[in-house]
Amino acid sequence: MSSYLLVRAKVQNFDSWKKAYDAHLSVRQEYGLSEERLLRGADDPNDVVLLFKASSLDRAKAFMNNPAIGEVIQKSGVVGKPDVTFLNS
């Protein structure tokens, strides 16, 4: 069984958000998350969908529940709260 984290977010500006997202790679890796897909809305390029493979659901949940991560997400230009789903295959 594999575990995944699915995140959908609206961002103010994709290019600015992407720079902040890329700069945060090592932290995602520390939590056992590896990007499987980064998709943008066909009608709205600031609508972002991310699929991460997770080493464990507990670590993925810890990542999303970490207040410091939440602060980074908001500072990166995410509008509102991202829609987060934890999945198993």
Question: Can you give a write-up of this model?
Answer:
The chain is of the alpha+beta class. It has one domain (3-88): 2-Layer Sandwich (Alpha-Beta Plaits). 38% of the residues lie in helices and 40% in strands. It contains 4 helices and 4 strands. A 4-stranded antiparallel beta sheet has the order 2-3-1-4. The protein is globular and about 35 Å long. The model has no long low-confidence stretch (mean pLDDT 96).
Spans with pLDDT under 50 lasting ≥5 residues?
none
CATH classification, class level: Alpha Beta
- Beta-strand residue percentage: 35-45%
- Order of helical and strand elements: EHHEEHHE
Which structural class matches the secondary elements?
alpha+beta
The helix tally amounts to: 4
Supply the number of structural domains.
1
Q: What would you say the CATH architecture is? A: 2-Layer Sandwich
- Number of separate strands: 4
Q: What value does the average pLDDT take? A: 96
Q: How are strands sequenced across the largest beta sheet?
A: 2-3-1-4
Distance between the termini: 6 Å
Major beta-sheet overview = 4 strands, antiparallel
Percent of residues in helices comes to 25-40%
Radius of gyration: 12 Å
C-alpha geometry: globular
CATH fold node name: Alpha-Beta Plaits
